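Reviewers of the previous submission asked for a worked example of the structure-prediction workflow described in the proposal, so we include one complete record here. The input consisted solely of the amino acid sequence. No template or homolog information was supplied to the procedure at any stage.
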Amino acid sequence: MQKDSSVKQRGTCIYLPTWLGEAEYKRLAGLPFEGVDRVILAFALPQLDGTIRMPDISLPLSDLLTDLAAQGTRIHLAIGGWGDDEAEHNRLLKAWELAGGEPHRFAEQVCDMTDKLQRKLELDIAGIDLDWEYPEPDQAGRFAALALQVKAHIGERLLSAAVPAEGKHLKGYEKVQGQLLPVIDVWNIMTYDRFGLWSPVAGHHAPGTWVLGCANAWVERVGVDQVSIGFPAYGYSFPGVIRPGQGPIGKTVAVMADQLDLSRVDEDRLLMASSLTTDRGWVTFQSPAMIRETRRELAALGITQTFAWSAEGITEEYLEALTS
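From that input alone, the workflow returned the following structure tokens.
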């Protein structure tokens, strides 16, 4: 199959987890993905023996990918990710350590594993997404070394990176920005999770006004053609909380898009944010209406690339908001 060598991407990308069940993949197969430019399989993971494990591809997932490719959606692969516990938090850092600090070894594994996955699926893997996500400033050089070697090994495939929207971890990227600008084709900006379990109080986790501010800052760093802005297809419930600003936070509960009651949504037009108040607590999320409004504002800035985390629980209404 012919690879698309264009690095000027347009449209919507959706991260597609590989751990979902058979029923969920069959449900997703019935949704209108025609407006989705590419999906990113998440994740290929480094192992304790120093190898990178090919993601498990069930038959329903394989069928979904075949259908998506047939309608013109490009398939990419994410490597790394963020674990649920301290030991697995930064999987690309672990990959660096297991490769003995030799980035070319890691890059060779990425290339070999991607080629094997491509043969297994009988589909073109058109891009690689590096998910170091939150490198500390003293790890930035390692990330740059990995990115440079991966880009050198993957040929015409697109190279993207999932990166934080703001905060201390940006200092790491800023230290190596000059090295990365010619290498990273698309920066997937994680403009969500502003508030959560880690916050002293409850708050909107992806308000449009904050998203736009982060988008502007990233455009200044890397240019408008390389920026892709993220939207969450999920929300957070704060049990015991009835409004933003309350705390402390005891726990949060993720709420997928198909679990949200949009008939009762409270839209904050000033912040461009959505919420619900339920008997189980206050829920923060972005409604399809707020996603459309934020996308219009992004378009005015010249930003035409967006992505969603993730396909899990996504609905037709959310897909239309992300792609129309």
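The mean pLDDT is 90. We consider this example representative of the routine output the project will generate in years two and three.
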